[in-house]
């Protein structure tokens, strides 16, 4: 992919699932990768996988609900590799939800704090450094729940919000040479979904049967889109929520 080689990519939630695969794909395309996650073991594992493929990566323990840790994550990219060119703001949580009037406020706040405000904190730290460097490209992870009523109310609200941030950032920073897009995965075979599937096998089978592709997505199928969106091959793609869902939402 054009324009990724020798760049610097930061990936949140890089210790598992989709973020691990986008970290690996960035490294395969020749980028230096900062893998950020609350999961130290998972993050180090991603770095080991990249290094064993001959790539270059650094882990930084980062909770996206903590502004100082997010600032330190971006600083790591600067200290280790000289700056930041690409970001995949991907860390997130999902929970089965009640109907929206039945949430307690703490549950609601936690979901928004990680999935929506976490993305905003990352953007706030990344954008000034990209402006300094003359531009960059950022992909935020939303969901099919960001463009439809799939998913619980607090999750759907957080993921709709990620698309709003992506669109607004596009308008605010186009002149600075930064492109922003979002990926909207369907049901992807990651620990997040595997855990939910273990808790409710029948529900996962019902969901899978309703996907036109007839199977769950693989994290690599999201990661390929993330790296493409950051590459020069996607130079005119701006502010878009890219749905990658095996046909789930076209029905
Ligand atoms: P995953 O395998 O659970 O990976 C998410 C990673 O993010 C985990 O390592 C997790 O650590 C970490 N994380 C959680 N809270 C964090 C925080 N506050 N700060 C930093 N890292 C944090 O899930 P995934 O399926 O790859 O999901 C990645 C993203 O895709 C999420 O935003 C999710 O909402 C979105 N998504 C997933 C699907 C799907 O079907 N899998 C569909 C649509 C959208 P712990 O494991 O320690 O919590």
UniProtKB/TrEMBL annotation:
CDD domains recorded: SDR_c
One Pfam family it belongs to: adh_short_C2
Keyword entries, A-Z: Oxidoreductase
Gene Ontology molecular function, alphabetical: oxidoreductase activity
InterPro entries, per database record: NAD(P)-bd_dom_sf, SDR_fam
PANTHER family listed in its UniProt record: DEHYDROGENASES, SHORT CHAIN (PTHR24321), ESTRADIOL 17-BETA-DEHYDROGENASE 8-RELATED (PTHR24321:SF8)
Protein family (similarity comment): Belongs to the short-chain dehydrogenases/reductases (SDR) family.
Name listed for the protein in its UniProt record: NAD(P)-dependent dehydrogenase, short-chain alcohol dehydrogenase family
């Amino acid at each position: 992919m054009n324009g990724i080689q020798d760049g610097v990519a930061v990936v949140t939630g890089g210790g598992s699932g989709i973020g691990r695969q986008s970290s690996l794909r960035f490294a395969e395309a020749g980028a230096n990768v900062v893998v950020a996650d609350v999961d130290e073991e998972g993050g180090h594992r991603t770095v080991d996988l990249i290094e064993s493929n001959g790539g270059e990566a650094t882990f930084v323990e980062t909770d996206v609900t903590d502004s100082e840790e997010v600032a330190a994550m971006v600083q790591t990219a600067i200290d280790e590799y000289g700056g930041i060119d690409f970001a995949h703001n991907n860390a997130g949580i999902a929970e089965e939800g009640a109907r929206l009037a039945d949430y307690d406020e703490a549950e609601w706040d936690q979901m928004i704090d990680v999935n929506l405000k976490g993305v905003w904190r990352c953007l706030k730290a990344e954008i000034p450094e990209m402006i300094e460097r003359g531009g960059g490209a950022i992909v935020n992870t939303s969901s099919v729940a960001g463009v439809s009523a799939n998913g619980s109310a607090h999750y759907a609200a957080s993921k709709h919000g990620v698309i709003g941030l992506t669109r607004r950032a596009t308008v605010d920073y186009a002149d600075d040479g930064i492109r922003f897009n979002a990926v909207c995965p369907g049901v992807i075979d990651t620990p997040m979904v595997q855990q939910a599937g273990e808790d409710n096998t029948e529900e996962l089978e019902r969901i899978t049967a309703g996907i036109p592709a007839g199977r769950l997505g693989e994290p690599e199928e999201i990661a390929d889109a993330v790296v493409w969106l950051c590459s020069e091959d996607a130079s005119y793609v701006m502010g878009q929520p890219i749905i990658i869902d095996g046909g789930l939402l076209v029905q």
